[in-house]
Amino acid sequence: MLIKTITVGAYETNCYVVADEKTLECAVIDPGADASTILDYLEETHLCCRFVLLTHGHFDHTGAVGDVLAETDAQLMMHKSDVGVSVGGDFYRFVPPEGTKFYADGDVVCIGALSFTVIETPGHTPGSVTLQCRDSGSDETVYFTGDTLFRDSCGRTDFPGSSTEAILRSLKRLADLPGDGEVYPGHGFSSTLARERSVNYFMTAAMRQ
User: Fold this and answer.
1) Going by C-beta distance under 8 Å and a sequence separation of 6 or more, which residues neighbour residue 85?
2) Which CATH number is 63's domain given?
3) Counted domains in the chain
């Protein structure tokens, strides 16, 4: 499994390119801005983008979706509950293009030896998901948590459609997952489930519920 982090946009969103190193097929997760940077990386590394996967529908995670889709044969996938979700007002609502496929809890997206399992983790938005990625070739498991779980923190819940109670339930669900896999959040530095279970105030609070 090859994971490339490309930090994009004014909000320094982590866009991830996750590839099967044998087939050179990949998924782009949360292309929030700077489409040319993302596309240049795909071209330079000879990767074929099969899917654009969204952890949620906020503008800083979706801003470059249209341009990436226009330049690849990728399929866009997201949770239906985040269609039209806003951030503090009506100035931006993400409406996915025709042909978008909607995933739900337990769905699996496969790319070569990689499998992305959808874990519904609402709270930051109604349709926030965590993508659990496994590599059958190495038994490696990692988590792309969007704005649900950060290193030492969690996503905001003061937006329309957000819920503190829901995000705590989602953090508890993530804490209960087996293993100590690497966590790749929507902003900031990576971590591990083991570390966050130990030192993340919000996750430990959720675990006590």
Assistant:
1) 56, 57, 58, 93, 94, 125, 126, 127, 160, 161
2) 3.60.15.10
3) 1
